[in-house]
Amino acid sequence: MKDHALPDDTLKRIADALERLAPPPIPAPDFAQAEAFVWHTAPDRLDPVARVNRVALDLLVGIDRARETLLTNTVQFARGLPANNALLWGARGMGKSSLIKAVHAAASEAVPHSALKLVEIQREDLPSIARLLEHLRKAPQTRFILFCDDLSFSHDDQHYKSLKAVLDGGVEGRPDNVVLYATSNRRHLMPRDMIENERSSAINPSEAVEEKVSLSDRFGLWLGFHPCDQDAFLAMIDGYCAAYGLKIDPSILRAEAVEWQATRGSRSGRVAWQFFTDLAGRHGIRF
């Protein structure tokens, strides 16, 4: 029988080729170089954010209860005390992601020696979350708010299983220096019609969607955001004008703001900021 073993030089070339295809291990991140990072994959890396896109906490009007609750939780976490994962759910444009970024800044200021960092992960990168957690676990002196914006799942989406590594953890559990803050337009992270679909077609309806629906139950804090009324909408705009020194006749400001929201067909913090951006540009205000 002939010996079909490959020559040593061929095996070496194959090994070298595989080595080149394999991504190099991520270097130990220097968390001192920025206050926020974005997690990317292919290859894995934590990119520092030079300047976080945020607004001041006191400019977030009409969400007082959510603001105080999340700030208290975050300050506890920054001080090394027990803190909950938080799900911010509800109406679009009402400041859910803005609140997380603003609270991070406020808690960092309240506990200046906490080394509190914000790390953003995209929903589509959730399968890599175990690798990210391993890097964060290796920096126990630093506290991390893991931030996932616009979190939701469809009926055939398996990404939610990866999220349990943060919410419950496996044998190791969630690192003590990591807390997860997520935003979603859905309280249960998946559309109600899909919940009903799976329930109606399942052999055991009560268990069919329990795993997915109960995912939101694993967040210790549920903070609801609801559409604002006109008074709150105008108060947001007044706050922006005061913060950026834009002086305008109140009656003119009100009339223009009401007209703006009428053309948009909605009122929200996002619409208020869009109106103020237009107003500031027309009056030569830079920010």
Please tell me about this protein's structure:
The chain has 287 residues and is an alpha/beta fold. The protein has 11 helices and 7 strands. The chain has helices at 8-21, 64-78, 96-110, 129-137, 159-167, 192-201, 205-208, 210-213, 230-243, 250-264, 269-282; strands spanning 36-40, 45-48, 86-90, 116-120, 143-148, 178-184, 221-225. Strand 1 and strand 2 form a beta hairpin. Helix 2 (64-78) crosses helix 3 and helix 9 (230-243) crosses helix 11 (269-282). The longest helix has 15 residues, at 64-78.
Number of strands: 7
What is the CATH superfamily classification of the largest domain?
P-loop containing nucleotide triphosphate hydrolases
Helical run tally: 11
Strand residue percentage: 5-15%
Task: Give the fraction of residues assigned to helices.
Answer: 40-55%
Overall tally of structural domains: 2
